[in-house]
Structures are given as C-alpha cells and as structure tokens.
Sequence to fold (372 residues):
Amino acid sequence: MSPNENEPDVQDARPTEAELSERRSRLARALEEKTTQAESRKNVSSSGTGQGFAQAMKLSTEFVAGVLVGAVIGWLIDKGFGTSPWGLIVFLLLGFVAGVLNVLRSAGLIAEQQDRTRDG
Amino acid sequence: MANDPISQFKITKLVPIEVGGLDLSFTNSSLFMVATTAVVAMFLIMSTSGRGLVPGRWQSVAEMSYEFVANTLRNAAGNEGMRFFPLVFSLFMFVLIANLLGMVPYFFTVTSHLIVTFALSMLVIGTVMIYGFAKHGAKFLKLFMPDGVPPVLYILVTPIEIISFLSRPVSLSVRLFANMLAGHITLKVFAGFVTSLIAAEGLGIMGPALSILPLAMTVAITGLEFLVSFLQAYVFTVLTCMYLNDALHPSH
Fold:
C-alpha cells in the first residue's frame, strides 16, 4: 500500500488500487456470467433423458418402499399378537403416510430429518 | 429360447456345494461377484503400483475415482464421515464395476438380483444403526422423535418416522435392482425384434429393411444403459453417505 494511492499523479505510471479492484470485480462478474451460462447449458442438455428417468425411478421406489415396509410390519404384528386384521390396516395406512413423507423428502419439498431437528 | 428376455437372469449352479442341508453352491452370480472384486482389486493395485508423482493414465483414473468418492462423502457427512471411506469406496467400486461388467454381452449382471442389492443396503443400514447406537446411545433414537412436535402426536409421528427409516434400505436396493433389471430386459427385447423381423416370413424384403429401426434403438439404449450404470452407482453412494450422516449427527 503506497501512501499516495488516491492521488491523481500516479495515474499515468501504473493503475491505482481503485482501478485494479474495479477491474478485478469486472472480470469476476464476466467469469461468473460465463460459468452460469455453461452450467445452465449443461443442465438443459442433461435433463433430456437420464435425469428425468432417474428422478421418476427415485420417487416411485421411495413411495412403494414406504407402503411395503408398513404392510410387512403390520403383517408381522398380526402374526405375532393374533390381532388380524387390525395391525395390517393400521400399519398399511401409516406406511402410506411414510411413503408420502419419503417422496416429499427426496423431492426436497420438506426438510430432512436431521435438518428439521436442528432448527428445534 | 434365445428371445426370452428373462433367461439372462437365471442362476445356474457351477459347483454344487451343500453344507448341512444349506445350498451353498458356487453359482454364476458368485462367479461374477468374484470377477467384479478381482477387476476392482487388479485395477487399483496395478494402477497405483507405479506411484508416480505425475500420474499416468491408469493412475489418474484411480485417483479420479478416489477424489470423486471422497468429495461426495465429505459433502454429505463432513470430515468425520471420512472414517467410513473404505466402506463407501468399496461399495461404489463394487456396484459400478458389477453394473459395467453386466453390459458385456453374455455376462451375468450381479446387481439385477434383488437379494444382492438388498444385502448391500442392509450392510449400510446395519452400519448406520450399530455406529449410531455405539456413538450416541439412546440419543440416536431422537431421530424418530423430532423436536417441536406436540407430545400427543408422538403416537403417530414416531411410527411413521420408524417406517420411513426402515423403508430406506428397501428403496435403496429396489432402485438399483429395478434399474438394472428393466434396462437389461428392454435391451434384450429390442435386440430380439431385430432377429424376429429378419426371420419373419411374408414380409419379403421389408423385414430386414424394417429391422434397422430396433437395431438403432438397441444402440441408443446401450448408450443409455452405460449412463444408468454409472448414475445408479453414484446414487447408491450418495444415499449411503446421507444415511451415514444420520449416524454421525442424529440430532443436530
């Protein structure tokens, strides 16, 4: 840092700090514009086949898994305690709810388990 | 039947072994699991044997796979998660190479069987539960009792959270298995159309000419399947990292 950085007489010799920082921010802006353009291009090109298919696969398995696990738990409870068919009915409904919860979570529409508990 | 799209998933016994009434035969599935492990081990041992400061082609592929998994794990579970790196890296390499080996014609796809993928995901969830209880004890159960919920609702919320937690290994394994199974069946069906059209009587010259269409589709689906092979290995790894994160930080 030279003490005379804001004085006009050094302008002819070399660029001042202010000019340099101005140029730096301009370059950073241009670079950012370029990268966001490249990223949006990449997103557009990859969203055609693979991404949509993967997303559909992910959400459907999340939902089916919830219902299946609920049904299996209910069936096991019925088998163990002889409460047929109430365990299956109740846990199938709970499994349905858990499936919807799974789908919403993996779609990012509600907070993950650990994130939500963090907020209190 | 050559055109049967399911026969490629058939388990055949190569070396029948039976111990105490249990069928422990060495099957074609076992053979390809051994082959997958051998390919992974050979690839990593051979590529890193040079240990060049400036990596060669193979070494940089090995380093790239390391960096890729390490970054995924660090992003999802933080620096603490790196203690699980051997597990996560082994899972990623195994699933990836098993998927890719399955793409070779006449090879068996290990990951197209639900029991294999389910065993892999149970390994993950087992690790999460054992580590979670060992490190946090009863506080690990906070995962099932979120804060800020009226106490009465715990009757409803806790079972739902438990089912949601238990459905993770199911969805993790079903996703990988279903993707591989569906992809290979589609491939086989479209490839079967080619031979059926060529062999079809009564179409004359039209049969072979039309068979270009399913052939083009087969080529396109092969490309897509390579993408899916990689994508599913990646998805399996990412979700593994997220579940391990739950074991490390259950309540904060």
The two ends of chain B are 57 Å apart (CA to CA). The beta strands of chain B are 13-15, 18-19, 22-23, 26-27.
